[in-house]
Amino acid sequence: MPRQKLVAGNWKMNTTLAEAKTLAGAVVAGVGTDDRVAVAVCPPFPWLLPVADVLKGSPVALGAQNVSAEKKGAFTGEVSPAMLLECGCRYVIIGHSERRHILGESDAAINHKVHSALDEGLHVILCIGETLTERERNLTERIVQRQVLAACTGLTDHHWARLTLAYEPVWAIGTGKVATPDQAQEAHAAIRATLRHFRGSAIADALPILYGGSVTADNAAGLLHLPDVDGVLVGGASLKADSFLGIVQAAKK
Ligand code: 13P
């Protein structure tokens, strides 16, 4: 079965409430009822409920940018998987490089979160990717392999059906330096080969792998037609409806 393309917008810590509602409304209007490409927006936590209201009845899905590995209790400031579901989230981004590098999330912590979110019924967008130094030392393959295997330790076949990977080279995030189609395809194919080796062809062939890092409406088409690129995770360009919808359009071709 061909893998459906996903275009997801990671709004990060941006937008006022009014901007979030306007942006979500414009995405809903632009997507209409066309569900050939899966589309999701991931606003900051406090805007999840109001944005869910705007998305109601549209094929545009809601996602969160982070989640706790814990179910409930004394974890001040944390948000549980069940809370995200109750807010209307279908997706949650886990292991984004900003959380790994700025907030110190470890592979083990990410593995715990992936399990909790999938157990609860969320779809997980798991981010992986090498830094510039790692790429320059030819460590890209080894790093993404380690990240995938560590984050996915212990997952059952049932879990894998709700998992999406996002290859986001750290050097391409927010820098305007997008990976070339060759670099993206090479990394995606290596990730898929790793999964084929460790988890078998059925899982490797069904798993969607998104590319993220300086994706724009201008460069999206060149990435989205690659055989192992199943969609994109968009930061900056997801904050403007026109550019985000341009990327959705590119994914339909
Ligand atoms: P940019 O598209 O702004 O480079 O961000 C990518 C990203 O981090 C998406 O999660």
The end-to-end span amounts to 18 Å
Strand order of the largest sheet: 1-2-3-4-5-6-7-8
Note poorly predicted spans.
Answer: none
Oligomer: single chain
User: Could you describe the largest sheet, including whether it forms a barrel?
Assistant: 8 strands, parallel, barrel
CATH architectural name: Alpha-Beta Barrel
Q: Could you tell me the CATH topology label.
A: TIM Barrel
| Estimated helix fraction | 40-55%
* Fourth-level CATH superfamily: Aldolase class I
Which hetero compounds are present in the coordinates? 1,3-dihydroxyacetonephosphate
Number of domains: 1
What is the β-strand count? 8
Radius of gyration: 17 Å
Overall mean pLDDT: 97
Provide the descriptors you would attach to this structure in a database record:
253 residues; alpha/beta; TIM Barrel; 8-stranded parallel beta barrel; 12 helices; binds 1,3-dihydroxyacetonephosphate
Overview of the structural elements:
- This protein has 253 residues and is of the alpha/beta class.
- It has a single domain (6-252), classed as Alpha-Beta Barrel (TIM Barrel).
- Helices cover 44% and strands 15% of the residues.
- The protein has helices at 17-31, 48-55, 81-86, 97-101, 107-120, 132-136, 140-151, 157-160, 181-199, 201-206, 220-224, 241-252, and strands spanning 6-10, 38-42, 61-64, 89-94, 123-128, 163-167, 209-212, 231-234.
- Helix 2 links the parallel strand 2 and strand 3.
- Helix 1 (17-31) packs parallel to helix 2 (48-55) and helix 7 (140-151) crosses helix 9 (181-199).
- The longest helix is centred in the last third of the chain and has 19 residues, at 181-199.
